[in-house]
Design brief:
Elements lengths: L4 H13 L5 H23 L6 H24 L9 H18 L25 H19 L3 H12 L4 H8 L3 H21 L8
Length: about 200
């Protein structure tokens, strides 16, 4: 009987977490392009000025996250939640890239944020107060996203991280387009609650 791609992913994941010989190398070769693409999208979204060395450094950090604490994050994958192993790996890569940028200065702002459009000419350096406020906003957003359920984080990854169309997300998640829109509204509402709880009232996404 032919094994589906999803079954192959799950078998490979189990081989990795059980430390089978050669499993990690096969796993990385399968997902290296996905990891690199997710990291690049985060760097682009936050208008980060980076070098190939920066990209390589964050990709290496993603790999460390995947194997840290005896593959803790990979073992947290639950196939019953309805998303693929590749989606889980992409989410880990995206979150790791966010964390890496959060630790850097200056703060990198989202291209989706209407309050922070890119100027046509360079502006003077922001004041320490402006930098501190923007850093706090970005930090609050990352913490809020981390407070969502794994399924909601996957949705954020697809909708905002990868910028997929609602029809594409519906096909991946096995839901209809109307459900995609209702899920988006629910995620936004949950993010708003989490941000308000942290004392941040701005619209999340």
């Amino acid at each position: 009987m032919k094994v589906s791609d999803q079954q192959q992913e799950l078998l490979l994941l189990r081989a990795v977490t059980h430390r089978k010989a050669g499993a990690w190398l096969r796993f990385y070769r399968r997902y290296d392009r996905l990891i690199i693409a997710c990291v690049r999208k985060v760097l682009h979204r936050y208008t980060a000025t980076t070098t190939p060395e920066d990209l390589e450094d964050i990709v290496n950090t993603v790999c460390l996250d995947l194997v840290r604490d005896d593959y803790k994050k990979l073992k947290a994958y639950n196939p019953d939640r309805g998303y693929k192993v590749s989606s889980w790996v992409g989410l880990i890569a995206t979150n790791t890239a966010h964390d890496a940028l959060r630790r850097r200065a200056p703060v990198h702002l989202s291209l989706d944020d209407p309050d922070h459009s890119i100027p046509e000419a360079p502006d003077p350096a922001p004041s320490p107060m402006d930098t501190a406020v923007k850093h706090e906003q970005l930090n609050a957003m990352n913490v809020a996203i981390a407070g969502l359920s794994p399924g909601e984080q996957i949705f954020v990854h697809y909708y905002y991280g990868e910028g997929l169309e609602p029809t594409e997300i519906a096909e991946i998640l096995g839901i209809n387009v109307n459900t995609v829109y209702s899920r988006k509204n629910k995620v936004r509402a949950n993010l708003s609650k989490l941000l308000i709880a942290r004392g941040t009232s701005r619209d999340p996404l």
